[in-house]
Amino acid sequence: MDLLRAVPSLAAGPVVDLGCGNGAAAVALATFGRPLSGIDSSPAMLAEAKALGIYDSLHQADIGRWAPDGAPPALIFCNAVLHWLPDHATLIPRLAAMLAPGGTLAVQVPHQNNAPSHRLWLSLAEELFPGRIDPDQGPGVLRPAEYHRLLSPLGELSLWETEYYQQLDACEDGHPVRRFTETTYARPILAALDEGEQARLIAAYEGVMDKVYPAAPDGTVLFPFRRMFFTLTR
After folding, report:
1. Greatest CA separation for the chain
2. Within its chain, how far is the Cα of 104 from the centroid?
3. Torsion (CA) 36, 41, 42, 47 in degrees, nearest 10
4. In what order do the strands lie in the sheet with 57-60?
5. Alpha-carbon distance 32 to 17, whole Å?
6. 202-231: pLDDT as tens digits
7. Average pLDDT, the chain
8. Per-residue pLDDT for 139 more than 70?
9. Which among 83, 85, 79, 47 has a CA at the least distance from the CA of 65?
10. Domain coordinates in residue numbering, the chain
11. InterPro entries in the record, alphabetically (predicted)?
C-alpha cells in the first residue's frame, strides 16, 4: 500500500501486476479502473488469484522474460518479487522501456541483506562449511546509489527506504526471526546442506539471534525489516 500511494497519476493504458502471486494487491490495483493483468510463474498462486475474480487476465510466465502482448502498460507494479531475479542493470531498464509514454514502473524489494537476520546465515555457513555456499545465490538487490545512476536518466525517479517494525509471534520450535527467514532468504543456503549440517547451522544461528533480537517475556520479538522502493515514470 505504501508503494501504491506513491504512484503518480497514470497515463493511458492497462495495469500489470508483475509477480502477482495469489493476488494480494489485486483489490488495491483494481481501484485504478484500468484493465488489470496478473503475471506469475506459479500455477498454484495463479489459481488463487483467479478465484478472486478481480483480474481481467492472468498469465503464467517467467517474469524475468515477460513482455506485454497488447497495449503498453500505464503501470507495471512489482511488489516483493524482483529481488529474486538477476541482472537488475539489464532487467529494470527493459521493464521501463515497455511502459506507455508517461507510464510508471513501481518496485518494492526487501533491503535486509546486510542486517544480522540475513547476513549471519551466510557468515555462519561459511564459518562452519567453508566454500559450500554461494554468497551470490540469494536475493540480488543493488545499492540505492546504483539504482539511482541506472534509472535517473530514464525518467522521473523517486527512490526511498522504510524500516518496518514487525512483532513476530512466539514460536515453540525456535527463534521467531529464524522461523521468519529460513523459508525465504535462507532457503537456498539450507538446501545446499544435508540434514545434520542444517541442524548445526540452525543451532549456531539461533544462538546469535537470542542476543541480536531478544525476545520479550511472552516470546514475541520486535523485528526491524528494511524495504527499498522506487517509482520510475517514463
Report:
1. 56
2. 18
3. 30
4. 57-60, 36-40, 15-18, 75-79, 104-110, 221-233, 156-168
5. 12
6. 999 999 999 999 999 999 999 999 999 999
7. 94
8. no
9. 85
10. 1-110, 111-137+164-225
11. SAM-dependent_MTases_sf (IPR029063), Trans_acon_MeTrfase_C (IPR023149)
What is the DSSP pairing of strand 156-168 with strand 36-40? unpaired
CA of 118: how far to CAs of 21, 190, 209, 225, in Å? 23, 13, 11, 10
Residue owning grid cell 535517473:
152
Provide the grid cell at 182. 529460513
Helical residues (DSSP H) of 53-194, grouped into ranges: 88-97, 116-128, 144-151, 176-181, 187-191
Pairing of strands 15-18, 75-79: parallel
157 three-class SS: strand
- Helix and strand totals (H; E) in the chain: 9, 7
Rounded Cα–Cα distance for residues 200 and 162 (Å): 33
The C-alpha angle with vertex 35 and arms to 33 and 38, in degrees rounded to 5, equals 115
Residue pLDDT, tens place only, 45-67: 999 999 999 999 999 999 999 99
Single-letter amino acid code for the residue at 75 = L
CATH T-level assignment (fold) for domain 1-110: Rossmann fold (3.40.50)
Residues in the chain: 234
